[in-house]
């Protein structure tokens, strides 16, 4: 569970949002295709397959650095082709990109029931990174009032001078709003470095959600951490903290 963490009875459960409470896979697929076509046409290219190789390579390079804003790696694509993009245009495209993702995501099937049940016993919070670099986007949970009503604290990291995860500050802000010490909180997220290691740095016990509906090559953790494949497993959270995998 991470060296040096004191295990106490859980009083608060904090969640990541994207790919933890909602499945945005289809939204990302549509948004990626839209962005690729815009950039390809703007560059005036003819070799589509060659362009896709460059696009995917830059995307992977920036994802490996945990930079998920689109503008930086889109700029890198332009620079690969010895061209300088219009920054304002890329900002506009990035807003359109995330609007597409937002409109094409949905709650995981079990999310509403699980959250409503957990709210009977625990304080609930959300910490999510803003995908729009340096710009305030809409609060994602507002679109899902059926679960939003159960959350006592929502922190949009990367906005309003709050650094993004894995910085410990957004975790500490959420704990403060929940009036809960880190030793009595659990964080549930899908990203190993941003969510799991980020929670550990803040002194919070992590649970790694590798949702069965998310198709991804999961990394190997350098620590022991409970892994779940559906949110239903959280209904037995006290038992879960003594196990490593629930299928």
Automatic annotation (TrEMBL):
GO molecular function of the protein, one example?
metal ion binding
Enumerate the Gene Ontology biological process terms. small molecule metabolic process
Keywords attached to this Swiss-Prot or TrEMBL record, sorted alphabetically, are:
Hydrolase, Magnesium, Metal-binding
Q: Does the keyword Isomerase apply?
A: no
Pfam families hit by this protein = Hydrolase
List the cofactors: Mg(2+)
| Protein name per UniProt | HAD family hydrolase
Q: What is the lineage of its organism?
A: Bacteria, Candidatus Aerophobota
